[in-house]
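Writing this down once: the sequence line spells out the residues, with the fold written below as integer tokens. This is how one looks:
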Amino acid sequence: MIRSMLDINEHLIWEGKPDRVTYVIGQPFFYLIALVWGAFDSIFIFAFMQGDGFGSMGFFIIPFFLLHLMPVWIAIIGPIYRFINWNYIEYAITDKRIYIASGIIGRDIKLVEFSQVREPSVRVGIIEKLRNCGTVRLTPFSRADNSGNNTISIQAGALHHISEPYEVFKRIKQMSLDIQTDISYPNAMRPDNNPGYNTKYDPKD
């Protein structure tokens, strides 16, 4: 679908999808929490079923535990949802911007301009390490404002569980630098000798 959204003079450089196994599994630590949570609730459910109070209080107890077991339902339904949703996730990098497509019911397309990329990073978790993939975040989760007192969320998106994350990261980092430099200092305004751009640091100086 992303290919159909490109401009006439826009060229596709890279495209990919999350690793399916890693994406479907999600956060393994959450399953441990859900397991402990479910075991804890099961003790009380078993106790109420054995006692006489379960029949008279069942009208209140059953809805309570159905709601209280929400982490368990999420742990069960989450992988099913992600298994279906994986088919609708697409990532693409062009010579103009980054595309992130998702959505089961409606197709959502998120555009991240290279001028929006700030402090990109690569994260490789345990499952990602085993699956030879990683996540490239285009901006940090948060950043302090100019006064340094408040924290502002500026998350612009991420390419989750992609193969060769370090190569993609280097490509995005270089393209972001080049394009932002062109915006700040267009080619037509650059002198033949520009000492500011591509400056080399020499520790001997």
Summary: Strands lie at 12-16, 90-94, 97-102, 108-113, 121-123, 133-137, 142-144, 151-153, 158-163. Residues 199-205 have pLDDT under 50 and may be disordered.
